[in-house]
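Why this split exists: single-chain examples teach little about how molecules sit against one another. For that reason, every record in the complexes split bundles all components of an assembly together and asks for one structure covering all of them. Below is a record exactly as it appears in the raw files.
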Amino acid sequence: AQTVTQSQPEMSVQEAETVTLSCTYDTSESDYYLFWYKQPPSRQMILVIRQEAYKQQNATENRFSVNFQKAAKSFSLKISDSQLGDAAMYFCAYKLNSGGGADGLTFGKGTHLIIQP
Amino acid sequence: GAVVSQHPSRVICKSGTSVKIECRSLDFQATTMFWYRQFPKQSLMLMATSNEGSKATYEQGVEKDKFLINHASLTLSTLTVTSAHPEDSSFYICSARDPGGAGDEQFFGPGTRLTVL
């Protein structure tokens, strides 16, 4: 069974600085997706960024980028120019790509990101 | 992006009663929906995969007779917590897969907070 590990329960960063959130996972599969989701106090899950395992190029979305190391099974999230609105819980998630799309997400325990003004 | 709604947003019930939670995809047809549970300050745990027109697939340890799932149409899945007890109190979140979307993204509902007295 796959597992997702986030070793940082809480991270703090100064506004406008850069922060990196860590995530490692364990799977015996080769075709899968990895995601970072943001959960603000409203509890609404918001997709931040996705990575397809067969793509070597790291995904980027504006201020958000990932460092995907497939051999090391590592998938970290870098947030540049941190803003107050980035404060939230961040969850790393894994999804097997079995082709039918009926695979649920396996989440890590989350990292609480605090932005210091 | 695709929109998923949940109803109700919060519900309080007495121990022993049953509670139904609805999950709707508003602007796309979802052949597959997923139900997650999130305890306070914890991660999301996949409970079951809801497939339109067929039986749901439950994760190990989830009681299918307690958590009844019905996916009667391409836009609606329901989760019924039968004979609810205080330990069932949790935040229940559904997600739906848009087959026409990119990257196999799942779109999340806003969640339902269940409190069993």
